[in-house]
Amino acid sequence: MFAVIKTGGKQYIVREGQELKVELLETEAGKAIAFDAMLVSDEEGKSVKVGAPFVTGAVVSATVVEHGRADKVLVVKYKPKVRYRRHVGHRQPFTKLKIEKISA
Asked: pTM of the prediction?
């Protein structure tokens, strides 16, 4: 069974037992969290439920594994002949989740 959930302005395809990184959530590590913003639910070809915009009564249960910061992304700006150079780095914070149960 898989589902499409929405969190942090993005959509993720999730399956039970999967671990994924999402935008930073304000939940402590080890705590359970439930996503009710499920867009699509599928039971491996048996029945597909599509929400308008969300599937009613559907919940995805997950556990927060850890919080962290992603690898550094370097942004370099350069203009020739004018001595303009900018070098900036960014590390995006994330929350790692383990999907426990999908109930549609």
From this structure: 0.80
